[in-house]
Automatic annotation (TrEMBL), chain B:
It is found in: Cytoplasm; Endomembrane system. Residues 668-677 have a biased composition (Basic residues). It comes from Dromaius novaehollandiae (Emu). Belongs to the WD repeat L(2)GL family. WD repeats lie at residues 446-460. PANTHER family: LETHAL 2 GIANT LARVAE PROTEIN, LETHAL(2) GIANT LARVAE PROTEIN HOMOLOG 1. GO terms for molecular function: GTPase activator activity; myosin II binding. This is LLGL scribble cell polarity complex component 2. Pfam families: Lgl_C, LLGL. Residues 668-698, 967-1056 are annotated as: Disordered. Residues 738-971 form the Lethal giant larvae (Lgl)-like C-terminal domain. Residues 678-690, 1006-1020 have a biased composition (Polar residues).
Length: 370, 1056
């Protein structure tokens, strides 16, 4: 039995933090080391232990400083909860079977207090039912523009995520020639282009690709020097999670970043691309692969999971992973209706606009209508 | 990108050195018959023969194993080839009227063939070669004088030019123009007409200064070179085709375009001869075709041989390709199935004055084969050729290689083959120059080719020359429209001309359903399975006695109870009723017929378990040939797969196509109608420039409607998704990790793998108990690419041995202690899974990285060149781009890759077959296999020497020769690669070890350590769906718990 030390809880020492956990009508109080809270799994076990519910699947939530009830279901949001808890960490535990998912989200705690208002205006409340937010494990990736921060402005990296949709990818590619700016002047080089979009396909409905966009890379591999058939095979081989770097035919909708525009010329963007991007992309994708491997394993075996982690630590791309995390938490609380298949291109582009607040003036340009 | 990955994987110097010791690529030798031969030459002194082809290749053959190959830089037809007798020089004339001199030179103890100089005849003096008609100086005939210092070139314009040899310098003052000849021709013959092109130049057999020159119009002269005078005139009036001396120099014979030949006496007393001694049209009196070439050979035993080609009656036999051999009253009209290119006779080199030539053999090169006739044995039988085998006598449909064939089986096959062809001559091969320096092959390699006419041919592929051993026909057990009998031959006895069919080139198949699709042979039990186009699977046994027995027939319905399918393809072959007579050799015991009778796409045999598995586009079956009953049939068809049933002419496709076209038209009109206005954006200039460039590049291409490719993931109902691509038997762990047992694996075109656990009774109880098959696992590869191969690796990462290999002490027992793993190779990626739980261990996504697709794979044992007892098992893979990649197993690390076949050469890529020890074969033409080697140790290449006695010092001609194992390939498919691993010949002689299982311990990045295998960096989700039917309830429970714990996993795993 891990009874909390009264003294420690009362003193609110720097090292420990008081936890107040509620399951049903019961409360438990205990303390945690703030500096090393441990893993979520351990915390979960501890909660089951202190509430004496060892074989009950539960949902864990906490109230943050704004009074919102937020879930704890992984190491990251557990650590977030611990680090932001002030003065004590309030934990709410629900049985999974009768969990009320709608309880989570912004304003949840204040809303509860506002019972009177609801009573007074019951119709208002009924008209706007709670938006049901799925659990993070039910989220799925969607097609998007990625790596905006590391690519030259003239390029766009697009991820077409086929998983979970019945839509066809819905595009065709062809041979063609493009003009490049090289140190020797303009040069005509063979290239691969988007030739056609199938109406209603993933490419067309997301608006991420357009006819005559030049394909530069497929999942991190440059296509220059490869034949149309080779590129076709590469794309089909990657069709579950296709990441295409294109040079859009329509260059007017590009995001202009101040930091870049001053220094970069056409030459440097062309030449810098191969050297810098594959590295970044590989790393980025490695994280991706990790989650894949977890998916593939049918019987439990920790072995494959260890491999990518070792590789990852050796690389120094924390900034990127952080962005990833940030985005995922953001996405995590998007209303589920928006995560539906009818994700519009506009909303996606708006999303990355938020990372780039300097260019609000270019609003018309960020909505991609092709 | 490849480089980039290689670098990342570490630059372990130890591994690099090992790679260098293990792998080296070279194309070593071409087997078979040169494609489209165009010329022939023979050196009677060195007893070597040269064949030129339409693609500019020159191939020199001597004794078996003595081979040289050269390729002209120009891809032009080699119209003529001439040896300087005994000198090792070869002069070639190309289509573009250039002459090339080739030299066979000694280097490091071996002889090589190399082009040394070339020469183009200039236009006539005074004429600019540009406006002068090129045909004037077009070379029609070449004579190399026996003194080996001068070449005489007869031309279209009628002039004769002289070149020094081997310098190829024009001796301008010696040039003989027609004007000079015409002075001595009587006026009434001259008639103001030109003499026409030079048709023949022949040296006087006794007096080298005298030349016999024949002109197209019919005039033949004897020209004395020393005095520059016309010695003798033969005023022929019939258009001349060729000339030949009688050995003594007293008689000449001329052949003509009317199908006749004339014999002229050379009488030194008078200067002119008006009439020949004899003139005859052998196949007259009706109009005949020209006699293109004629030879006159004296013979001690009586009448001389007159050998000529053509001259057949135009109307009745104008389409026959014949060479006639006439000796006194004996005439044989050798009837070939393809055009006669050239022929020569082989006789003793030094014939004494007044002696006889006594030709030993007649060698005829026809377009599709080389036929040698023994002229010293009565009846003139053919001599079997030890090389230049016409592989394509019927089109090759599949090939199969077996290495390390046991001597016993080898001898039985040879004896079966010998009994097949009793009519062949026992005379030794007459073209036997040179010495084969290659060591005796230490292991016997057998190459089997399946053919369109239902035959399987067995070739000795142990050494440089590919020898035919045995031919197996499968047509005789079926009722075909055209019965095979030799009645035609017998009926023609009384016929005139006395045709005699020679050669074996017969491209016409009686019934396309007879075609062989797949072959499997067990070398220990001499059991063979041959499967064909009409779903027939024949189980055969080698028997040394002839027999007459009925073949038992079984049908296996692969559709099972699928409804709604109608087979619209061909019917199955009807087997003959009652007993059929079989010659010694492979005799069928059971015939299994698939229903529907689609072509068999995969077959495998396990002789220890008496099982044969076969698959078609509809499903697969398992048959117990001991009890002769089917064990299993499984349909693999997807319900929407209409193509598999209805054949490729489906209506759905054309509708799709027309829809697509009409949409394209609409779209096109829209695009052209709407011209965008250029917006003035305030962005930087560079961006604008880039944007403009991108836009400029766009529109013009739209109008061209270029080739488009649709990008869409494979769907389960893609056409022909049910095609069974591979079948595999293994003794491994399927049910649980404690008990191993017989299993069967099948992979399909849609990325499905089916695994069956087999209950095989012990040897003694075969007749009592039936084999049972229980479905164990079903794996669906998420990328749905066709499964090319499946293999199980033992605990040490080595492939499992073949049946009987362990029990006969020929291979190490597999490691049954460690956990087995399974290598599945799809067209897009390689993946190693653990067994019995199927979970992915390592993978390599070839297509995602390289954009190429897997065509052929094989597990190959590579022996190290430096250390005797080190060998590695690797995965060799041929891609659709014609590259060969080698990967370690089970780590799947890329080791090396080589360009091998042109990517346009689809039939070459499709025909490729790997051997177990790092060699391979692929077809470079319908009739030729290229042999290549991936191993540093196991190389089969021609190593031979030729003793030449040069009359002149030729050191001035020495060049810097490249030391490549082989000169560029004749068909131009050779892709040059850096000769980084040039092994010394001594290395390559060493034989590969037998199954080499031991890995040297220690290297940091050893192929066995899958732990450090770099995971793929391209992110897609390839989740395999594994249905486990066998898993014990406890295990299933654990799986379930895993599933609930690991919630991020998609619900793709179904556990039943």
């Amino acid at each position: 039995m891990n009874r909390p030390h009264r003294g420690a809880a009362g003193s609110r020492g720097l090292g420990t933090m008081e936890v107040k956990s509620k399951f049903g009508a019961e409360f438990r109080r205990f303390s945690l080391e703030r500096s090393k809270p441990g893993k979520f799994e351990e915390f979960y076990g501890l909660l089951q232990h202190v509430h004496k519910i060892p074989n009950v699947d539960v949902l864990v939530g906490y109230t943050d400083i704004h009074g919102d009830l937020l879930p704890i279901n992984n190491d990251d949001n557990y650590h977030k909860a611990v680090s932001t808890a002030n003065p004590l960490l309030r934990i709410f535990i629900q049985r999974k079977e009768d969990a009320d998912y709608s309880a989570f989200g912004t304003d949840t705690m204040t809303r509860k207090k506002n019972v009177l208002a609801n009573v007074l205006r019951p119709d208002n409340h009924k008209k706007k039912p709670h938006i049901v937010i799925s659990m993070p494990q039910d989220f799925r990736p969607v097609s998007s523009i990625i790596d905006v921060d590391i690519l030259p402005e003239t390029h766009r990296r697009v991820r077409l995520y086929k998983y979970g949709t019945d839509k066809p990818l819905g595009f065709y590619i062809r041979d063609g020639s493009s003009v490049r700016v090289t140190p020797h002047g303009l040069e005509k080089v063979p290239g691969i282009f988007i030739s056609r979009l199938v109406p209603g396909g993933l490419a067309q409905s997301t608006g991420l690709l357009a006819v005559n966009d030049e394909v530069l890379e497929v999942n991190g591999i440059e296509v220059s020097g490869k034949s149309l058939d080779q590129v076709t095979d590469m794309m089909i081989a990657n069709s579950r999670n296709l990441i295409i770097t294109v040079r859009p035919a329509n260059q007017r909708n590009n995001v202009v970043r101040n930091s870049r525009t001053s220094g970069s010329s056409g030459q440097s963007t062309e030449s810098s691309l191969p050297s810098s991007t594959p590295n970044i992309l590989t790393n980025f994708l490695q994280g991706e692969e990790e989650s894949d491997e977890e998916d593939i394993i049918i019987e439990d075996s920790g072995e494959p999971q260890q491999i990518p982690k070792a590789v990852r630590s050796s690389e120094s791309l924390e900034s990127l992973t952080q962005i990833e995390l940030h985005e995922s938490t953001q996405n995590g609380f998007l209303p589920s209706s928006e995560i539906n298949l009818n994700h519009s291109a506009g909303s996606i582009s708006m999303e990355y606009e938020e990372h780039d607040p300097d260019h609000k003036s270019l609003e018309d340009g960020t909505i991609i209508t092709l | 990108m490849m480089k980039f990955r290689f670098r990342r994987q570490g630059t372990d110097p130890h591994r690099d050195r090992l790679r260098h010791d293990l792998f080296a690529f070279s194309k070593t030798v071409e087997h078979g018959f040169p494609n489209q031969p165009s010329s022939l030459a023979f050196d009677p002194k060195l007893r070597i023969m040269a064949i030129g082809t339409k693609s500019g290749a020159v191939k020199v053959y001597g004794a078996p194993g003595v081979e040289f190959t050269g390729l002209h830089k120009e891809t032009a037809t080699v119209t003529q080839l001439h040896f300087l007798p005994g000198q090792g020089w070869l002069l070639s004339l190309l289509d573009d009227n250039t002459l090339h001199l080739w030299e066979i030179y000694q280097k490091e103890g071996c002889s090589h063939l190399e082009e040394t100089r070339s020469f183009g005849l200039p236009g006539r003096p005074g004429f600019d070669s540009a406006n002068c008609s090129p045909s004037i100086t077009r070379v029609t005939v070449i004579l190399l004088k026996s003194t080996c210092d001068v070449a005489c070139l007869g031309t279209e314009g009628g002039g004769v030019y002289f070149l020094t040899l081997p310098g190829l310098a024009l001796l301008e003052e010696k040039t003989l123009f027609q004007d000079e000849i015409l002075q001595s021709v009587p006026d009434d013959y001259r008639c103001g007409k030109a003499l026409g092109p030079v048709e023949s130049i022949q040296e006087h057999p006794r007096d080298p200064s005298k030349l016999l020159i024949g002109y197209s119009r019919g005039l033949v002269i004897i020209w004395d070179q020393t005095t520059r005078t016309v010695d003798h005139l033969f005023l022929g009036n019939q258009q001349l085709e060729s000339l030949a001396w009688e050995h003594s120099g007293k008689t000449i014979v001329s052949s003509h375009s009317d199908g006749g030949y004339m014999v002229w006496a050379v009488n030194s007393s008078c200067q002119k001869t008006q009439q020949p001694v004899m003139s005859t049209i052998p196949y007259g009196p009706f109009p005949c075709k020209a006699i293109n070439k004629i030879l006159w050979r004296t013979c001690e035993s009586g009448n001389p041989f007159i050998i000529f080609n053509g001259g057949m009656p135009r109307a009745s036999y104008g389409d026959r390709h014949c060479v006639s051999v006439l000796q006194g009253q004996t005439l044989a009209t050798l009837d070939f199935t393809s055009r006669v290119i050239d022929f020569f006779t082989v006789q003793g080199t030094e014939v004494a004055e007044g002696g006889f030539e006594n030709p030993r053999a007649l060698v005829v090169l026809v377009e599709e084969e080389l036929v040698v006739i023994d002229l010293q044995t009565p009846g003139w039988p053919t001599i079997p050729a030890p090389y230049l085998a016409p592989l394509h006598s019927s089109a090759i449909t599949c090939s199969y290689h077996i290495s390390n064939v046991p001597l016993k089986l080898w001898e039985r096959i040879i004896s079966a083959g010998e009994q097949q062809s009793p009519r062949l001559s026992s005379a030794s091969w007459p073209i036997n120059g040179g010495k084969n320096l290659a060591q005796e092959p230490t292991q016997r390699g057998l190459l089997l080719t399946g053919h369109e006419d239902g035959t399987v041919r067995f070739w000795d592929a142990s050494a440089v020359s590919l020898k035919p051993l045995y031919k197996l026909g499968t047509a005789n057990i079926f009722q075909t429209d055209c019965e095979h009998n030799d009645s035609l031959n017998q009926a023609s006895e009384e016929e005139w001309p006395p045709f005699r069919k020679v050669g074996c080139f017969d491209p016409y198949s009686d019934d396309p359903r007879l075609g062989i699709q797949k072959i499997a042979l067990c070398k220990y039990t001499a059991k063979m399975v041959v499967a064909g186009t009409a779903g027939q699977v024949l189980v055969m046994e080698l028997s040394d006695e002839k027999s007459e027995h009925a073949v038992s027939v079984a049908t296996v319905d692969l559709l099972q109870d699928r409804e709604g399918f109608t087979w619209k393809g061909h019917d199955r072959l009807a087997p003959k009723n009652g007993p059929v007579a079989f010659a010694p050799g492979f005799q069928p015991s059971v015939l299994v017929q698939c229903v529907p009778p689609a072509a068999v796409t995969a077959v495998t045999l396990h002789s220890e378990w008496n099982l044969v598995a076969f698959g078609t586009s509809h499903g697969f079956g398992l048959f117990d040939y001991y009890r002769r009953n089917p064990v299993l049939a499984r349909c693999t068809l997807h319900p929407n797969d209409s193509l598999a049933m209805e054949g490729p002419l489906s209506r759905v496709k054309s509708l799709k196509k027309s829809l697509r076209q009409s949409f394209r038209r609409i779209r096109k009109s829209r695009v052209s109608g709407k011209k965008r206005v250029n917006a003035n954006s305030p962005s930087s200039k560079v961006q604008e420039a880039n944007a403009q460039l991108a836009e400029q590049a766009g529109p013009p291409e739209v109008e061209m409607t270029p080739v488009q490719r649709r990008i869409e993931p494979r769907s389960p109902d893609d056409s022909l998704s049910g095609v069974v691509r591979c079948l595999y038997f293994a003794d491994t762990f399927l049910r649980d990790a404690a008990h191993h047992g017989p299993t069967m694996w099948a992979g399909t075109n849609s990325g499905s793998v089916f695994a069956y656990a087999l209950e095989v009774p012990s040897q003694e109880k075969f007749s009592e108990r039936a084999v049972e098959a229980v479905l164990g696992k079903e794996i669906q590869l998420m990328h749905r690419a066709p499964v090319v191969a499946i293999a199980v690796l033992d605990g040490r990462g080595n492939p499992l041995p073949e049946p009987y290999e362990v029990s006969r002490d020929l291979a190490k027992a597999p490691d049954m202690q460690g956990s087995h793993s399974m290598l599945i190779s799809s067209e897009e990626q390689f993946k190693v899974f653990t067994l019995p739980k199927v979970s992915a261990k390592t993978k390599f996504k070839l297509t995602a990285h390289e954009g190429c697709r897997v065509r052929k794979v094989a597990l190959v044992s590579f022996a190290s060149a430096t250390s005797e007892d080190y060998a590695e098992n690797c995965l060799a893979c041929l891609t659709n781009l014609g590259d060969i990649h080698i990967f370690t197993v089970p780590g799947l690390r890329p080791q090396v890759h080589y360009g091998c076949i042109r990517k346009e050469d689809i039939s070459g890529i499709a025909s490729c077959v790997f051997t177990k020890h790092g060699q391979g074969f692929y077809l470079i033409s319908p009739s030729e296999f290229e042999r290549f080697s991936l191993s540093t140790r196991n190389v089969t290449e021609p190593l031979c020497s030729l003793e030449v006695s040069r009359l002149q010092d030729t050191s001035c001609l020495s060049n810097n020769f490249m030391v490549t194992p082989k000169l560029p390939q004749a068909n131009g498919t050779h892709v040059p690669h850096s000769p980084e691993a040039n092994h010394s010949p001594a290395d390559s002689d060493r034989s590969p070890e037998e199954h080499q299982a031991a890995f040297s311990p220690g290297p940091v990045d050893s192929p066995n350590s899958s732990m450090e295998n770099p995971l793929d960096t391209t992110g897609d989700i390839t989740v395999e769906e594994v249905k486990d039917f066998l898993a014990s309830s406890e295990e299933a429970e654990r799986n379930l718990r895993n599933a609930s714990e690991d919630e991020a996993r998609p619900a793709g795993i179904l556990i039943k």
